Amino acid sequence: MSWFGKIMGGSVGFMLGGPIGALVGVSLGHSLIDDKVRSSYAERGQLTGQEQRQAVFFTATFAMFGKMAKADGQVCDDEIKAVRCFMQDKLRLDAVTQQFAIGVFNEAKDNNTPFEDYARQLGQVFQAEPQLRMMFFEMLFTLALADGVLHPAEDSMLRAAPGLLGLHGNVYETVKRQFVSDVSHHYAMLGLENGADIATVKKAYRKLVSEYHPDKVISKGLPEDFIKFAEEKFREINEAYEAIKKSKST
Is 0.85 surpassed by the pTM of this model? Predict the structure, then answer.
């Protein structure tokens, strides 16, 4: 993660601007990272535009996780476990980067900056990449359901998030349907209403496999640590298409 090394080396958060930039600076200051370890990660140079976008996505993810986990008034063990699994199993972050991510999570869950501010900044930075904004929203939904219950405060955040992120249409209901276990899940993965005709299904499928190809979303600013999410989304799109074709042929 070259952006992380450069931040450790002095390209501090204010370069990113807004509430996310401020959060980076505070989190680095409070992260319990040994000075010797910190210096070994440090890289010289200013953040490129691509690196700034990656830093925003990474930081916003853990900031919003913090806000979502605290939405019902307390952070439960299942939510902490979900975040740790996300860091270790999904992203495979090393110990130092995990410390930074935990610092962002803890600072965001307890500070006075509303989650709307983080969501708006991410939406603005990635305004030309709806697939990355949608992936971000899907990750929020996954964490909210980590304890098996969608608390009213979490539900309120999730309903507000699409508009803040600049996502249009009935995004909330579409993503929610991805968490059911029947054929509706497969239509939702393609962003379609149940029972869409095969021509519409094919058109949606072709568009999504182009937009969500892992190499393509990485090139648009998704941090490389998130490549497994892009790969999983790509796989789910293909599985959904095959499942719908099979259901229509029986």
Answer: no
